[in-house]
Amino acid sequence: MMGRVKQRGGNWALLWIALAAMSGQEKFEAIHSTAFKGIGHHYMLEPSERPEGPWLLDYFEISELRDFDKGRLRQEIKSKGCNSTNAGRARRGLSLGPS
How many Cα atoms occupy the beta-carbon half-sphere of 85 within 13 Å? Predict the structure, then answer.
């Protein structure tokens, strides 16, 4: 299949194939906003005692809202690990775009 995609126009062909797989361009363009929430962790090698581990862990929760019509982004990250302050209540918020 990849050979056929290259013959039809490379990256643009892949884009149209993906749009068709997601019910078409009209439905894709009808999306005005998205939201997601997640949880993750990362290893904190720099403040850890030894580079070979065990490393300190930082757990975090993230929530994000995107408004495509107005070009806005709202992102909040809550740290729940050893990198947080106030016993797990550290928060970072980010808002971009016109209000």
Answer: 2
